[in-house]
């Protein structure tokens, strides 16, 4: 007999029915999401909880009235928008499918509070930092910035049982040592310099193990475990130190998905899986060992590698990394030469074997490190990098 689909994964299967198609791409500001926030539906509560340095509003979205309280925040780094898109999709699902068994389960068992955009100034400028050039994820201890104080205020007043810390990570990460990109990565932050595994950290490890068990059907071999070096200035480390099981979600690269529209779906699945694990306590059936079986992230990828290319009469490999640039409210990806070496022992999201043929810039000048190369000449033919 066919095994019944878990209710939270049944909702994931309906993703195309609730994805917010109006919100796309990497550049996502408060202006892009304002309309959606004001129309989240009767079962969701929108509250203004503070302002950014430049006076932009910071809101929370609230759903459910259950005893288990989960606090989540996204776009702490303004240029990390994938998890914000995923959160908006989830709230679209809550509105579109109010009678779905999983939605009802969440509503009854969980109080879910989300700050969808903690750093609206950084989002507008498409930068990791806030308007004062401060990384909010290094301000959890000193609390110098307005946005950091807003998050701490919500943490103190809401008194969550769990925290979801939502981020993006670069395309350089692999899931372990094999040639698989880390499409999703997770971490239960350390609680002290010795990285002890104390009770609250054990719980978050088991929740991550449960999420990974669900997600491996969507992204097999592409789930990683983030480095757990302790830093009390980091928000996740601070909240974990205070005894609240905290989970870092990192949205990463999927093949040919630089706008992260595919990864977005898997982040939705991961968050729904986490909500399910907490609501049903299925995390209890997993172990700390299951968490440590998740391969640790390594920095083993470039975006493009040109293999066996001839430059200045020598056969070399050329590693190219895309740098992001905001132009007219769109993100341009600038292919930048990072390394030219006889042999580059890394993986690439795209590899081209040049078969010993000469490679030059489009103006026929020789290639150098730090050059931006949207197109190159390969054997006197134009090769488009991106």
Question: How would you characterize this protein structure?
Answer:
The chain is built from 11 helices and 17 strands. A hairpin with a 5-residue loop joins strand 1 and strand 2 (57-63). The strands form 4 sheets. Strands 1-2-4-3-5-9-7-8 form an 8-stranded mixed beta sheet, with helices on both faces. Helix 4 (82-96) packs across helix 10 (261-280) and helix 8 (199-215) packs across helix 10 (261-280). The chain is α/β, with parallel strands linked by helices. It has 2 domains: 7-299, 3-Layer(aba) Sandwich (Aminopeptidase), CATH 3.40.630; 301-384, Urease, subunit C, domain 1 (Roll). 48% of the residues are buried. It starts with 6 loop residues before the first helix and ends with a strand. The mean pLDDT is 95.
């Amino acid at each position: 007999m066919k095994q019944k689909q878990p209710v939270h994964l049944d909702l994931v299967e309906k993703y195309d029915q609730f994805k917010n198609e109006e919100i796309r791409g990497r550049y996502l500001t408060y202006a892009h999401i304002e309309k959606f926030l004001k129309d989240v539906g009767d079962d969701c509560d929108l509250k203004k909880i503070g302002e950014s340095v430049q006076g932009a509003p910071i809101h929370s979205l609230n759903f459910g009235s259950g005893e288990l309280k989960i606090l989540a925040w996204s776009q702490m780094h303004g240029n990390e928008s994938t998890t914000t898109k995923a959160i908006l999709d989830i709230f679209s699902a809550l509105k579109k499918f109010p009678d779905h068994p999983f939605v009802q389960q969440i509503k009854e068992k969980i109080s879910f509070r989300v700050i969808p955009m903690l750093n609206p100034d950084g989002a507008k400028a498409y930068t990791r930092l806030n308007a004062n050039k401060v990384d909010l994820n290094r301000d959890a201890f000193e609390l110098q910035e307005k946005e950091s104080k807003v998050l701490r205020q919500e943490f103190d007043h809401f008194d969550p049982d769990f925290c979801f810390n939502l981020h993006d990570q670069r395309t350089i990460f692999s899931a372990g040592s094999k040639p698989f990109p880390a499409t999703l990565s997770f971490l239960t932050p350390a609680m002290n310099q010795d990285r002890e595994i104390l009770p609250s950290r054990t719980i978050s490890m088991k929740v991550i193990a449960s999420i990974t068990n669900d997600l491996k059907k969507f992204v097999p071999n592409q789930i990683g475990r983030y480095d757990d070096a302790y830093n009390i200035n980091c928000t996740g480390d601070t909240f974990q130190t205070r005894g609240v099981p905290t989970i870092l979600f990192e949205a990463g690269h999927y093949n040919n998905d630089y706008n992260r529209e595919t990864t977005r779906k898997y982040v939705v699945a991961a968050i729904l899986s986490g909500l399910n694990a907490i609501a049903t306590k299925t995390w209890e059936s997993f172990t700390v060992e299951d968490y440590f079986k998740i391969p640790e992230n390594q920095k083993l990828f470039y975006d493009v590698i040109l293999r066996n290319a001839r430059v200045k009469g020598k056969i070399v490999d050329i590693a190219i990394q895309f740098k992001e640039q905001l132009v007219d409210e769109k993100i341009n990806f600038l292919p930048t030469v990072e390394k030219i070496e006889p042999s580059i022992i890394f993986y690439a999201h795209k590899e081209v074997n040049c078969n010993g043929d000469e490679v030059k810039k489009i103006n026929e000048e020789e290639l150098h490190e730090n050059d931006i190369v949207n197109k190159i000449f390969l054997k006197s033919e134009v090769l488009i990098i991106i």
